[in-house]
Kynurenine 3-monooxygenase
Amino acid sequence: MSSPAVTSSIPENEPLTVVGGGLVGSLLALYLARQGHTVEVFERRADPRKGENLEGRSINLALSDRGWRALQGIGVEEAVREVAIPLYRRVMHDQRGQLTMQPYGKEGQAIYSVSRAGLNQRLLDLVDQEPRVQVRFNQQCRRVDLRNRTLEMFDAAAGSNHVWPYQHLFGTDGAYSSVRAAMQKTDRFNYSQQYLNYGYKELTIVAGPENSWVIEKNALHIWPRGQYMMIALPNLDGSFNCTLFFPYEGAVSFETLQTPEQVRSFFEEVFPDAVPLMPELEQEFFENPTSSLVTVRCYPWSVADEVLLLGDASHAIVPFYGQGMNAGFEDCTILQGLMAQYGHDWLTIFREFQRQRKPNADAMADLAVYNFEEMRDRVADPRFLLQKKIESKISAQYPQQWLPLYSQVTFSHLPYAEAWANGQEQERIMQRVMPHIETEADFERPEVQTLIAQELAQR
Amino acid sequence: MSSPAVTSSIPENEPLTVVGGGLVGSLLALYLARQGHTVEVFERRADPRKGENLEGRSINLALSDRGWRALQGIGVEEAVREVAIPLYRRVMHDQRGQLTMQPYGKEGQAIYSVSRAGLNQRLLDLVDQEPRVQVRFNQQCRRVDLRNRTLEMFDAAAGSNHVWPYQHLFGTDGAYSSVRAAMQKTDRFNYSQQYLNYGYKELTIVAGPENSWVIEKNALHIWPRGQYMMIALPNLDGSFNCTLFFPYEGAVSFETLQTPEQVRSFFEEVFPDAVPLMPELEQEFFENPTSSLVTVRCYPWSVADEVLLLGDASHAIVPFYGQGMNAGFEDCTILQGLMAQYGHDWLTIFREFQRQRKPNADAMADLAVYNFEEMRDRVADPRFLLQKKIESKISAQYPQQWLPLYSQVTFSHLPYAEAWANGQEQERIMQRVMPHIETEADFERPEVQTLIAQELAQR
């Protein structure tokens, strides 16, 4: 920790190696190159910009402040903003098609719907303009030999294996990381993969006439139904990507929806306002895969100064807080800060990175599961929405002392662990305040005002 | 669950396959054969009865009631008892060499020190006498192909690979199971491996003249030192296997003991009565490996009617309750009961097995970590030992209503999860009773008697 603050940008002889050229891997390659390093990126898939789009996951992503900051750091923020759709609020659809709203933050604050494929392609275009980075596509990682520091890659286009040595390896190969799988076999590597009993299915709300949006464009739509939910995010072409989060087994589950008739009848009962907007419902339901939802935790994230895991490879989370990509991008911001501080001292950089970042990744994993319950269940409860309104009033009255948890996570750069701790503390205060609240107007009552002032004074 | 209770012992055409011929694998093979099945066992190591003993772990094991019942089920109980040493109590050694005692159970109740290698060899001898079982040694599992139901085995003696099909596969290949590793890659497989920050080192207290025991033979010896401890179990030849459980890092840790002088000086300070009995201390300390301590949890334990994990492969635990082998052996007892009930209906057998057994394996994993804290720290506390004496008096007075947790785990066949729940409830009662107790005699005081009677009436 007493290393000198080397800021030299003279590259080392050996290029750095990045396994995984998805969102985090391509952004990381740009950060490493801008720091003066030469970088070799191995990506399993074919170049997504060539030929058919074989992209596995078409799901939209919600980009928020942490992600924007990381994009800004390499100067691509504005270009991405042009193709991002701001979502200023949640719109909840009840079983009769009636709507309620909940703003995400203050006036003008939004999360942004972006296409995963589009964003990845844009980052790869930037990588192409960076002479220090070389990307090799169609490279399936067959083996990571941690002892001899080599990668065995199967080149799917050439049909042959090749062994590559590495000096410093960055594993950004996602939730099912091959690099992490090699580390899992080393002694004292803590690891867990935990699945929800829920799967998800992607569906489509089609565009209206002339690519118009048939439900509110600048909102994230939720059909909360207690034990399950559907959500929808807008696309630029007027359509919406819908995702049904649904139990695998049980009375109401993927298991029990076996025929097109069952699907239609179920959707008409529980999502009546959405069904007319989903002309390909039955076909999509049976053609699109049912995907699982995993949380991956592990530690350590590094092997000496030789390997470092980032993004989903070290902390895959469920998608309900819209923070998976943002957390991975923030990894790049944090790493950038450490590189600026410690130069080529990779041992210190890797150790500091995992030490600082692990508690925040764990907190974010907890937050993501927590928000699933909020989205599928609590947002349908008028008392919950009233509580959120009161919280928003407290925040307006005491802006220095109270930022709602959602805003701390989404619209700030506070470490996730601090946000989560603050959020839990605020929730305890709300549990004491809400018994005194029947309507929004009760916030102004003197005893409520006194109680809130007292609670805040005690924090 | 409505399957008929088939008890036919007519074997199916296909032999059953067992991967792993250690303690649980060889016992399981015997149980399967006695049920009428033909069985093929693949074991990674060479036959331990031939040539040099290459047994990885020489550590002694503590056999208790659950293990005995499983051995009894195949008629080998008496033969094993002949080479087992009963341990009736814990003997705690303080830093000045002074001793305190704590009986494990009632008069005559004991856990039994047995040699892992000796027990494994005896089970393999029994397997040899069983015409329905074939054991193949030197078979390293290279790949389990769950889709095609094949095993790729590298025969280390022949130097060649062979692919074996399987119909029903039992994975008893331990904490680092290859069978489980294949299952880990399937969708929705929950898995965790968690290491303690402690490692262990095996050391030896040598025998006295004419193979005599230089400390009490029929006891498990503990040197509890708060953040670490040493234990010793007797061997038949008069020696004791000692195990030091010690932090990997920190002020007092493996990291800080780097020279023979440091080791001797440290041991003389903290284990002064043991050092004179350990003439090879320094040599053993640096020659013997430092081994890690892992808890493995996973679910599901089965794939259709095709694969079932048992023993450490599905529930590896830390060794502090002496229940790892006993839990694995109890798996065989439970499976035997399900085979008797469901015959060849492997789908039901596998599903019922994991459904019944998983909560108990989880409870046992928690108990094992809990007992580490008790052994290394609490047994050195006079108040803790007083509490144990009072508990023992309550148990004597109310034998139908109060069995100490240790006895429930060790001297009963109560499911582990029930034992753990009862134990936690009893601990809460003791927390209310102990403030009224200064000495053992206080147990007889009327207000204490009334309090205990009230607490028991409320359970």
